[in-house]
Amino acid sequence: MPKVIYVSHDGGQLEVDVPVGTTVMAAALKNGIDGIVAECGGVCMCSTCHVFVNEGFFSRLPPATDTEEAVLEIAAIERQPNSRLSCQIKVTEDLEGLIVRMPEKQR
Amino acid sequence: MTSAGTVIIGTGLAGFQTAASLRAEGYQESITLIGEESHIPYQRPPLSKGFPLGTQDRESIELRPQKFYQDHKINLLTGERVVAIEPAEHQVCLASGGRIPYDKLVLAVGASNRLLPIPGADLDGVLYLRSLDEAIALKERLARARNVAVIGGGFVGLELAAVASSLGKSVTVVEALPRLMSRVVAPVISEYFGELHASKSVKILCGASVAGIASANGKVSSVILSDGTKHDADLVLVGIGVVPNAALAREAGLSVSNGIAVNEHLQTRDDHIFAIGDCAEHPCTFAHARLRLESVQNAADQAQCVAATIAGKKESYRALPWFWTDQFDIKLQMAGISHGHDRIVTRGNRETGRLSVFYFKENRLIAVDSINRPLDHMLGRKLIAAGAAVTPEQAADETFDLKTLAQKPKST
Q1: Residue B299 C-alpha, separation from nearest chain A C-alpha, in angstroms
Q2: Beta bridge partners of B86
Q3: Contact B296 A73 (CB under 8 A)
Q4: How far is CA A27 from each of CA A4, A55, A99, rounded to the nearest angstrom?
Q5: What would the CATH number be for the domain defined by B6-112+243-310?
Q6: With an 8 Å Cβ cutoff, are B411 and A39 in contact?
Q7: What's the fold here for domain A3-101?
Q8: Is 0.90 surpassed by the pTM of this model?
Q9: Which of A26, A34, A40 sits opposite B296 (nearest CB)?
Q10: What is the fold, at CATH topology level, of the domain defined by B115-240?
Q11: How far apart are alpha carbons A75 and A104 in whole angstroms?
Q12: Which CATH class is domain B329-405?
């Protein structure tokens, strides 16, 4: 099972084994990671699962849809070039060791 | 830690989010979250979408795993009903006999399905949808059904019609008003979705009222319209709206109109008691009216507002309403409250399948509905929330970049 590393705003890290096909958002909720809120439940409506993806991995992700790009525009912490919505990142074997950093706030 | 803490009645999103936000705000007192359902808090939107379709299961719709409540010292009482509030004693009475004291009480008690007042409405095979238990029953019945009649052409009815059709059922939607979703969207949006459903062989009957439901051997066999026509149905799904659960509040002497009445701080007339989410009628700064809204946004943002107030940072509620519905592979995104608009312009067009409707009132942008134009939706949220000066001409002109009017990033 691929490992995903969640880094909180204050630098705390948590490693989670995530089944392939599960989203980075869903795995965060299941593992009690408070930096992800996921208010809309993962349907690309609310931006509260915003993460910054570590450089080496960003380019390996399928590109964001227009809907995701639009939602990133309303993120509580301004989006960066490596911003994604964690509800749109499905974990694959290729993403072993994925590092995502969570913003200071989601709302 | 000296007070009796906060008691929250209702384990929907509003109740859950109040508890979660209180802890996020650093609230140290006790929190008790009480719900009638036997399940831990879950998301309701998938119940008419991914859950009956089979793309989401029970576990995937839980708002948080069971462990979350222990980790955050939230005393979660499921399968428990509050039978009375005693405001003078600052306590609630449980059906199981106990009493729980509170310093602050949050009513997040939701709403109940409006029932169909016609003969045959109580037959086996007539189903409503609100709770997970109802969704489980609906999913099971849907798997066995052939002809499905959906009563009500609003969001829930149309989402269920789309699910049933996607599962290969023959589907008929009966809507009493002249067009689909007519209370909330412009005619062009109704037409778009009418065509979408028709293209998937869903039969849409608008301006049609149901006179009765006929049975054979104790089971539903058809829906009879007031013009006498009969439509075969072995399953009838009813989605004709909800009524707020206001009885507890009324019996406690709180003010109730179209929902439990609250002020801009979401406080009832007892300032120790708040009401939020589907059950509450609040002053909406955007609509300049008192509204009761049924949505994820409203539940979550009102919960956040009340949590901040209880935690000592008194807030007024002024979040912009937004909504969505998923039907087949199309998402309709709605920002603002369009009620009372006096002018509509469209951006994009139906032919391309990419369309937004901008609603104006006295030259002010009040709402935007978008299909396949997600940036219009998000910019619409920013523009309406900021009260930005956008003209109908700018909104209708696809070459005009609306982003230039919404430069300041703002979370809504």
Answers
A1: 10
A2: B91
A3: no
A4: 9, 21, 13
A5: 3.50.50.60
A6: no
A7: Ubiquitin-like (UB roll) (3.10.20)
A8: yes
A9: A40
A10: FAD/NAD(P)-binding domain (3.50.50)
A11: 11
A12: alpha beta
